[in-house]
Structures are given as structure tokens and as C-alpha cells.
Design goal:
This protein is of the alpha/beta class. Among the domains are: 41-270, Aspartate Aminotransferase, domain 2; 392-482, Orn/Lys/Arg decarboxylase, C-terminal domain (Ornithine Decarboxylase, Chain A, domain 4), CATH 3.90.100. It is 34% helix and 16% strand. It is built from 15 helices and 22 strands. Strands 2-11-10-9-7-3-4 form a seven-stranded mixed sheet, sandwiched between helices. Strands 12-14-17-16 form a four-stranded antiparallel sheet. The chain is globular, with a radius of gyration of 23 Å.
Length: 487
């Protein structure tokens, strides 16, 4: 390998370029964040005398995590060095029995589905509402959770995503009250809401609203390293020892002291200077959004959506731009922003793009994105609808998110499988996941029927150039399905 081909050299070259990050991690490669974020090799150690053990904390780490819990108002807080994914896996396995039942929102991250697979669970899904005209998922209605629990007393735990990748917040307080009425624990994947606890202008954190387990990705919206996260716990409806047992299973046995020190340092900073910084950040976002509201063709998803489609609140740090009133797809807008303006967004879907902002952002970066979107918008014309034709985007908005479940995810993964062309897979049972990453929400999960609308959507996503992943066939031409009994 040539020196210039090494990963470290490629990273350095990219860092020195003018590409601006509207994606995680939350420090945004901001070299002015302070020396405390430039952690060198000289503090990278292992479990030596006096520095405790994350899997059996009795000293400095125990004290550190107890302090963190006091900051968040949790009964226990655990540092996660394997990202939110390991926290979600531990939460699922620590609140359900093998072969048991869980209720979870269909828009969960793929790590939740991996937890379902590992514990051989049966899943009852609650579906988020949809902003039909935008093709964007809304929030989960408390009454839907109530209805499903009333008909499924065997459910052991409930898992909800809030906020979503698009910043949509559900009514967690009411959902928690309902779940507790049935004597069940509520797990909230708050991976994208790590900043909520430190800013009064942002939505309230689920840990303040009655959730029993809350998982947050520190690295997504706060100034910390990729892979750093925390799990907060409230006692009463969960078995703390089970959660800790599974954290020992899913976390590395060699936890990084650099990561743990960074988590502590990030929380320390956010609990002091960070609160004021979030106020200033909110003011910058408000100015930015005021300008973006002037777009005539592209549409900014804003707080006027609150109160409809299950949207209880909205995190305005997620800049969600809909393309539904234009001839562009989300993938095309994403490509224009990258190639022409050197702005790298977090995610693109068929109908919209998402830019993640954080207090690590610089004012010039926010201005660059604003002016780029306004310039692109000025070059667009209004889409004229042809009632005789149904566009691929319109089809994708109508695609059912309620696939027919024929077997458990575990059974679907473990069954004997065969490969078939995606276009010829209608009516068969999926043997693998298909999802767009990010955000990693399955279009289809193992054990589910491949309906015509789902197959069509997979093919259209591929044609749009979206990051369709999960398929064993890297060419994307075939899909693994459960082998039929030919007898």
C-alpha cells in the first residue's frame, strides 16, 4: 500500500479540504472546540490499578457514572463505548425473555431488529403516522400503543424511537403513562436527542418524561467521538442486574479509556458552558430557518407540523428539506449539494434530505448551506402534476409500511434460503433485511412477505441511487428468500 493510500492520509486530506460536514459526529471536525477534545495517545490505557473496570466499576468509573446520572436525573447512567447499538441490544435482551414478545415502533434502527433476532422475539409493531404530502414519517400516537397493549397482554417491553432521524418527537410522557398502566417498561431510542437535556429551547428528554431506559448517542449531536453513547435507567419497571449483564455481553471487554474520558468530559462541558452554547446555537438555527422558509419550491419541515401526524414536538437542529414539490429526488439534491457546493449531508431519501447540525457547527457552515439551498431553490420550477401518470416518488409514499409477517425474524434468518431476482420475488418470504443506510430502518425484514409495493419500492430506491443495503448479493439484483417446500 502506498503511503498516500493509507486511511489516515485520506482522512487528513479530507479534513483539510473545504467539504463541510452536515452529518455526525457532533464535533463537526471543529478544530476550535478546544484542546480538551484533542485526546492524545498518552491517556490511552487499559484496566490498570487505580483506574477501575467498566464491567465491574467500584472506583473512579463508578463515581463518574454516578455523577453523570445526577446530571441527567437518572437513577443509573452507563457509559457505552460500542455506540447506542449496544445499549439498544442490552435494553431489549434485558427486558424480555428468550422467545418472548416486544412492542416496538416499525421505524426502529436495525440494531433493534438485531436484538429481536438474538432473543428470538415475536414483534408487535406500532406504526408512526405519516406526513402524507411530504412522504415523511411522523410520530407514534399514544392511543395506538394503548390499543395494541390492550390486545397483547403477553408483551414484555415497549420500544419507541424519539426523536426520529428527521427530528420528530412523539408524546413520550403520555406513552410512558400508558405503558406503565400495563406494568411494562418503556425503552426510548433517543440516539439523536443527546442534546435535549442541556437546552431549554429543545424538546425535553425522555428520561425526564417517565421512560425507564433511554439510550443516547453522545457523538451524534454533541462534541464527542464517534461510537460514544450513554444508557440512562430509571428503577421500578426494569431489572437493573439484567441490563448490566447484557451490557457486559454487548460491550467490548477492552473499553477505550479515551472514549470514556471523552464521554465524561463532554457531559461536564455540556452541563456548564454547553448550556449557554446551546442557547446561542438555537438563535443561529432560528435565523437560518427564517431564511429557508422563503424557499418557493423546496420545503423546510418546520414547527408548524406540530400537532398533526403524531408530531408532538420537533428538533429544529435537524434540517429536513422536502423535494416533493420539485422534479428532484432527495438523492439528486444530495448529489448537487455535495458536488457543486461541497456540503456533505447526513442522509437522503426518495423525498427529502437531512442535514444534522450541532453546536459544533460554525456560523459560516450554516450560511453556506442556507445560501446553497436558496440558490438551488431559485433555479427550480414548480412541478406540474399529470393526473394520468403516477411518479415513482408518489408510489413510494403509498408503499405499505405494514408488511405481512409470516414468521419471526429469527426463523426468517435461520431458514433454508435461495436467491431469486428481486423483480420475481413477489409473494415470497424475505430471508434477509433490506434497508436504506442511513437511517437503517428496514424496508423489509426476514420473515415478512415481499408484497408488490415493497418490491417496487426496493427497485425504485436502487434506480435513484440510494444506499440500499442488507442484500447478500452486492450487485443488488437478487434477494435471499425462504426456500419453498417443492413437495
Amino acid at each position: 500500500m502506498k503511503s498516500e493510500e493509507r486511511l489516515i492520509e485520506q482522512l487528513r486530506q479530507y479534513s483539510d479540504s473545504d467539504y463541510y460536514p452536515f452529518h455526525m459526529p457532533g464535533h463537526k471536525r471543529n478544530r476550535n472546540m478546544g484542546e480538551e477534545y484533542k485526546v492524545p495517545f498518552d491517556i490511552d490505557i487499559t484496566e490498570i490499578h487505580g483506574f477501575d473496570n467498566l464491567h465491574h466499576p467500584e472506583g473512579i468509573l463508578k463515581k463518574s457514572m454516578e455523577w453523570a446520572a445526577s446530571v441527567y436525573g437518572a437513577d443509573k447512567t452507563y457509559y457505552l463505548v460500542n455506540g447506542s447499538s449496544c445499549g439498544i441490544l442490552a435494553a431489549i435482551c434485558g427486558t424480555t425473555h428468550c422467545g418472548g414478545n416486544i412492542l416496538m415502533s416499525r421505524n426502529c434502527h436495525k440494531s433493534a431488529y438485531n436484538g429481536v433476532f438474538l432473543n428470538h422475539l415475536n414483534v408487535r409493531y406500532v406504526y408512526p403516522q405519516v406526513m402524507e404530502e411530504l412522504g415523511i414519517q411522523g410520530g407514534v400516537l399514544p392511543e395506538d400503543v394503548d390499543r395494541i397493549l390492550s390486545h397483547n397482554p403477553d408483551v414484555e417491553a415497549v420500544l419507541i424511537v424519539s426523536p426520529t432521524y428527521d427530528g420528530v418527537v412523539s408524546d413520550i410522557e403520555k406513552i410512558a403513562d400508558i405503558v406503565h398502566q400495563y406494568g411494562k417498561p418503556l425503552i426510548v431510542d433517543e440516539a439523536h436527542g443527546a442534546h435535549f437535556s442541556f437546552g431549554e429551547d429543545f424538546p425535553r428528554s425522555a428520561i425526564e418524561l417517565g421512560a425507564d431506559i433511554v439510550i443516547q448517542s453522545i457523538h451524534k449531536t454533541l462534541p464527542c467521538f464517534t461510537q460514544t453513547a450513554v444508557l440512562h435507567l430509571k428503577s421500578g419497571y426494569i431489572n437493573q442486574e439484567e441490563i448490566e449483564r447484557y451490557l457486559r455481553v454487548f460491550q467490548t471487554s477492552s473499553p477505550s479509556y479515551v472514549f470514556m474520558a471523552a464521554i465524561e468530559n463532554c457531559i461536564f462541558h455540556m452541563n456548564r458552558e454547553g448550556r449557554k452554547e446551546l442557547e446561542q446555537f438555537y438563535e443561529s438555527l432560528s435565523r437560518m430557518r427564517d431564511r429557508l422558509k422563503k424557499m418557493k419550491h423546496l420545503e423546510l419541515v418546520d414547527k408548524d407540523r406540530i400537532g398533526a401526524s403524531g408530531v408532538f414536538d420537533l428538533d429544529i437542529s435537524k434540517i429536513v428539506i422536502s423535494v416533493t414539490d420539485t422534479l428532484l429526488t432527495g438523492a439528486e439534491l444530495d448529489k448537487i449539494l455535495r458536488n457543486q457546493y461541497h456540503l456533505e449531508l447526513e442522509m437522503c431519501c426518495a423525498d427529502h434530505v437531512v442535514a444534522i447540525t450541532s453546536l459544533g457547527d460554525r456560523e459560516e457552515g450554516l450560511i453556506r448551506l442556507t445560501e446553497a439551498l436558496l440558490e438551488i431553490d431559485s433555479s427550480l420550477s414548480h412541478k406540474v402534476e399529470d393526473e394520468e401518470l403516477e411518479s415513482d416518488l408518489e408510489w413510494s409514499r403509498k408503499v405499505t409500511t405494514r408488511p405481512e409477517v409470516e414468521m419471526t425474524i429469527f426463523e426468517g434468518v435461520m431458514a433454508e434460503k435461495e436467491s431469486v431476482e428481486i423483480g420475481k420475488s413477489v409473494g415470497q418470504i424475505a430471508g434477509e433485511f433490506v434497508f436504506i443506510y442511513p437511517p437503517g430502518i428496514p424496508v423489509i425484514a426476514p420473515g415478512e412477505m415481499l408484497l408488490p409495493s415493497l418490491v417496487h419500492t426496493i427497485q425504485q430506491y436502487q434506480e435513484m441511487g440510494l444506499a440500499v443495503q442488507g442484500l447478500k448479493d452486492r450487485t443488488g439484483k437478487t434477494i435471499q428468500v425462504v426456500k419453498r417446500n417443492r413437495e
